[in-house]
Design a protein that fits this description.
Length: 145
């Protein structure tokens, strides 16, 4: 099972990759570069693994929480994960398949930036809202034991 610290570390790694990819995808000559594609593949794997592990560990526990507000937040976060997984799956199929044509590159960049923004927003929400919620529920459980 992944700990909260491991999930936080994954978030930082994903954010770091997003910052690098933001720069690389704007260069039309690099779209089909094998090193960029390798970096994108690494990013895809990290995001996918993070979505799966967070869902199967921490959030499944929050969803069962006795406080209805907490379980509803967890359920909403889980539903958002399903939506992102679906969009992300479709998006991953397009990576490194865009041609060098200007209109393809512009569409690819727009699509890429949109997906990177969604993932980054989710990470920010997770960091600012979900992780503190998990920590507070863990702390309250530890004090009641």
């Amino acid at each position: 099972m992944y700990s909260l610290n491991e999930l936080k570390k994954q978030n930082q790694e994903i954010n770091d990759l997003i910052e690098v990819l933001r720069v690389l995808i704007n260069n039309k000559k690099l779209i089909n570069n094998p090193f960029v594609c390798e970096l994108v593949s690494r990013f895809n794997e990290k995001v996918w693994m993070h979505l799966v592990f967070e869902d199967n560990t921490i959030y499944s526990e929050l969803a069962k929480h006795h406080n209805q507000d907490i379980s509803e937040i967890a359920q909403s976060f889980h539903d958002n994960a399903k939506e992102i997984k679906k969009e992300f799956s479709c998006y991953v199929k397009l990576w490194c398949k865009a041609s060098g044509a200007d209109h393809h590159h512009q569409a690819f960049c727009g699509n890429s930036l949109e997906m990177l923004n969604k993932i980054q927003q989710r990470i920010k929400y997770e960091t600012d809202k979900i992780f503190p919620l998990v920590e507070s529920t863990e702390n309250s459980q530890n004090t009641s034991d």
